[in-house]
Design goal:
Blueprint (H helix, E strand, L loop, with lengths): L1 H6 L3 H12 L3 E5 L1 E5 L14 H15 L3 E2 L2 E2 L3 H17 L6 H17 L16 H20 L2 H15 L6 H9 L1
Antiparallel strand pairs: 1-2, 3-4
């Protein structure tokens, strides 16, 4: 915000940028500069809004405080990637009629792509060996063991992850054609 203020000539705009910075807003760069909404400041309203909005505020506060991806690179570990994806899925399943369901569905789909592919600058598979990253495999296996069978069966994402890891095991933890076909199908 300081850099942006120094580049702006209109005094009114500089004042607005200063006020936004004081409220916790920041500019982040992910392809373009975009304002990051400080959702943690909305937590004071949680007692006065519906359960779906309370959950939405918590999920978005985590994302605005520590974005999952910035500049095409993962900013969190693989445990956090799968955890957030599961939380988004839980929101979508629990609050189907929420006015935030569409936004959470989009967040879930972005997170699902990251879970199964990584990002352009943090791919799930090593580009030379085509092997799945060990850190991701460990995080995913631990997540599934902690979730348990009932939880896995109640989650489309966890079911797909379980199938994916079984397929990976059968394919020597490599991104074979069978793995590529599975990823296209989900």
């Amino acid at each position: 915000m300081v850099l942006a203020r120094s580049k702006v000539r209109q005094a009114e705009v500089r004042i607005v940028l200063q006020d936004l910075e004081g409220m916790g807003y920041k500019l982040v760069q992910d392809e373009d500069f975009v304002p990051a909404i400080p959702y943690k400041s909305f937590k004071v309203f949680k007692p006065y809004v519906s359960k779906d909005l309370q959950s939405y505020i918590d999920l978005m506060a985590a994302e605005s405080e520590q974005p999952m991806v910035a500049g095409g690179r993962l900013q969190v570990d693989w445990y956090e990637v799968i955890e957030r994806a599961v939380q988004y899925e839980d929101f979508v399943q629990t609050y189907k009629t929420s006015n935030r369901a569409a936004a959470m569905t989009e967040a879930l789909e972005r997170a699902r792509r990251i879970v199964f592919n990584g990002t352009p600058k943090s791919p799930l598979f090593d580009q030379k060996t085509e092997a799945m990253l060990e850190q991701a495999a460990i995080a995913y296996e631990n997540t599934l063991s902690e979730a348990g069978l009932e939880r896995i069966e109640g989650s489309r994402l966890l079911t797909q992850l379980d199938e994916f890891l079984v397929l990976q095991l059968k394919n020597g933890d490599k991104k074979t054609q069978a793995v590529k076909d599975y990823l296209k199908a989900i």
